[in-house]
Amino acid sequence: MGHTVREKTKLLARVRRIRGQVEALERALEAEKGCAEVLHQIAAVRGAIQGLMAEVIEDHVDTHIASPAISEAERSQGADELIDVLRTYLK
Q1: How far is it, in rounded angstroms, from Cα 61 to Cα 27?
Q2: Burial class for 41, CB neighbours closer than 10 Å (0-12, 13-18, 19+)
Q3: What is the pLDDT of residues 43-81, one digit of tens each?
């Protein structure tokens, strides 16, 4: 069982909170709130997404790279997958 499956409930709860933050951002824009309020909403969404990303990366490293129960080939594949994702994320 993959780590995202084991942590499904917790990850989905985070995604739902992020959805709520994005909806709050949308409402702020629709209501023509001030730029400071909109910027705070954007910062909150960004922080929440980064927190989710960090949590999934940590679980990925623990499960697919650092685990003593996996083979060297699996470890290498896990590292390659993480590198690919980080390159995309950091663009």
Answers
A1: 37
A2: buried
A3: 999 999 999 999 999 999 999 999 999 999 999 999 999
